[in-house]
Design a protein that fits this description.
The protein contains 17 helices and no strands. The protein has about 300 residues and is mostly helical. It is globular, with a radius of gyration of 18 Å. It binds magnesium ion.
Amino acid sequence: MLYGAIIGDVVGSRFEFNNYKKKDFDLFHYNCSYTDDTIMSIAIYDACRLIKKEGYEVYEQAEQFFINSMQTWGRNYPNPKGGYGNSFYYWLFNDNPKPYNSFGNGAAMRVSAVGWMFDTLEEVEKYAKWSAKPTHNHPEGIKGAQSVAGAIFLARTTHDKKKIKKYVESYGYKLKSCNFIRPGYQFDVTCQGTVPVAVEAFLESKSFEDAIRLAISMGGDSDTIGAITGSIAEAYYGIPEELITECQKYLPEELLEKLKFEADYKADMWSYNKCAICIHKNCPNKDIITKEKCLDFEKEPNISIFEEYL
Ligand SMILES: [Mg+2]
């Protein structure tokens, strides 16, 4: 749920200010580190978890959770590699923070968990918007968050690249081939300059690792393009276990502890009565269901059946 973005971030971190426009680099390297993309992806996850638990349905209720979570995580990790954008850094330490009309790619790079934790495309879009609004309330910022979260949702529920492409294009993004974009592509921290590039890298990829390599090879804001592409690629391909293990070497103990919450999340989904896609052989429900709707649940009430899909 979060390692796709985190791996893309860690791998891309050493190329942010030193672009490398080819795919033949060492995936992990001693210069790699987690950056703000990792910290804020975890923050958004934490906020969503509490919002789901409390059942908040209106923005005014949910807003404070997003603000608190981002400020808490950001203040605990004030100096990740590459730092934070100036406006966001000011916002992080402001006790009365206000949105600052940003259309930076920060809204899209942190939204990964939203694409996983909500059960319909409409809900994913709603909470993606809410996750962006406390800082990135410019229409392009909101659009960036919604399109990436929606792409993640479609990747994990339909596994259909054509659908994902069409969905992202419905936001008005023009998707051009990586080979067309790459030569002239420069450092660009806007949503509109980052999201279509990251999505295209995913669409052209052949595997999770290939997606990350393709994303980094585009240049630009490498850690963030890596995080966005990685978050969609994870939902589509899954992640080879060895890449997660390797990535964990670049994360501090405290973050690793926090990341164990992926397991908690699965338990949470269960307890909130929201579960994943049923893969029971005989169950006719092939869409998102609750355990009550699963016809085989009585026979096999084993959470691992659902975990397998997650
Ligand atoms: Mg970063």
